[in-house]
Design a protein that fits this description.
With 421 residues, this protein is mainly alpha-helical. Helix content is 77%, strand content 0%.
Length: 421
């Protein structure tokens, strides 16, 4: 009721022109083929959050070393962040049907080799090699967003589609890790990674056979001959902003678990983190259901201000209820800010390079999550659980700074960053 009343006040003030959530999302799936590729994309993106935690669970149980498990998992995350944008660039040029099967097969091969190496007790160095090969996993979130963009480019429905995809990303990161860990504990250590490989192959196969909604590849050499889209300073700003947002997410994960353990309620960490995800999902769905009359560059600035402001209460959390409330508030601005960033990159990069552009933002987010977790872990070990949230505060300050710079440059540029009418 509170969310609806806020939306009603926004509509009355002229900030938005539409708040019918059910109609907005129903319109997305009225187009032919959207249900099928959305479901295939959901299946294919589950392996990403399952693989990192699956490697940790596997190696901690078979090798008894969390240090080795963390290092190998970090190798996978880093390889994914570095390799997924070039893979997406090839998708832009040659099409999803030609590139995705090969990339997914290499990634699945890397996961299967990891499983085999742990079974046959291969040297530890080989684990890093296969984890890097598993990092050839394509950015399935970007692939599905590219299909929505090809279908609804220039229409208000596109913002709704981006909102839906951000919420689905959240849900996979909520549901994927418990499934991977649960299988590895209940069945056998390799089970989580094996399921991730299977889901990747099935999901990619289900997506690429849907040729009618596949974005057409661009074979124009002029569209691909100027290097990476990351050469654009505005794209770099947005990618950097996503790194900063990822730092907040990685910090929240580590510091929340540490604080719950410090309070003697380790199991309650999952409830607190669920509040963060719930706030983000609810805000994302609401954001996508309305047509904003505010330019996108200004929405990005508002998101940066709100993100920075809502990290501060985390430092004051001294109980599980207080932590949950602070995380609910902080999460409410994650999805909307990410949606705006994706909408901006769609207008900043050439249509022929869109998948690559969105993948750089998603890669930045993953790099930030890994950085935040690593830095917060060091702070927690040295100064305690609550001190770890200071890393999130620093991440929020970086988001605000980068959002401010991006707002200034986008407002002064000729790029049309007006909100969809």
């Amino acid at each position: 009721m509170y969310v609806l009343s806020v939306a009603a006040s926004w509509e009355a003030s002229g900030l938005i022109s539409e708040t019918d959530m059910s109609t907005s999302y129903r319109a997305l799936f009225s187009a032919r083929g959207t249900r099928a590729f959305a479901l295939a994309g959901l299946l294919a993106r589950l392996p990403l959050p399952m693989t990192g935690i699956g490697i940790i669970t596997l190696l901690s149980r078979t090798h008894g070393s969390y240090a080795l498990a963390g290092a190998v998992s970090a190798t996978f995350v880093l390889a994914y962040a570095l390799l997924s944008p070039p893979i997406s660039a090839r998708v832009d040029r040659y099409g999803q049907a030609r590139v995705l099967p090969a990339a997914a097969a290499l990634s699945a091969l890397g996961m299967l080799a990891l499983v085999a190496n742990t079974h046959w007790h291969a040297p530890d160095w080989s684990l890093f090699v296969w984890a890097a090969l598993a990092g050839t996993m394509p950015s399935m979130s970007a692939m599905v967003r590219a299909r929505w963009t090809a279908m609804f480019r220039g229409q208000p429905h596109l913002q709704t589609a981006y909102s839906l995809e951000t919420v689905l990303d959240e849900l996979t990161f909520i549901g994927g890790p418990p499934v991977s860990v649960g299988l590895s504990v209940v069945a056998f250590p390799q089970a989580g990674l094996l399921l991730a490989a299977l889901l990747l192959i099935l999901g990619v196969s289900a997506l690429v056979v849907q040729r009618s909604t596949e974005p057409p590849p661009s074979s124009d050499a002029r569209s691909h001959g100027n290097g990476s889209v990351l050469r654009s300073s505005r794209v770099r700003l947005l990618a950097g902003l996503m790194v900063a947002m990822g730092v907040i997410v990685g910090t929240v994960d580590i510091a929340s678990v540490a604080l719950a353990a410090h309070l003697g309620r380790p199991a309650a960490a999952s409830l607190a983190l669920s509040a963060y995800a719930a706030g983000s999902c609810a805000a994302g769905l609401l954001f996508g259901a309305v047509a904003w009359r505010i330019p996108l560059h200004r929405l990005l600035l508002f998101g940066g201000i709100a993100t920075a402001a809502t990290t501060s209460p985390l430092l004051l959390a001294g109980s599980i209820p207080a932590l949950s409330a602070a995380l609910l508030l902080a999460g409410a601005f994650f999805a909307p800010t990410m949606i705006v960033a994706m909408s901006l990159v769609e207008r900043l990069v050439p249509a022929a390079r869109l998948t690559e552009g969105m993948t750089w933002l998603l890669a930045g987010l993953n790099i930030g999550v890994a950085m935040g977790a690593a830095i917060a872990g060091q702070v927690v070990d040295g100064q305690g659980a609550r001190a770890g949230f200071a890393v999130a505060l620093a991440g929020g300050a970086a988001v605000l700074l980068l959002a401010g710079i991006a707002h200034h440059r986008l407002r002064a540029s000729s790029v049309n960053t007006d909100a969809a009418a």
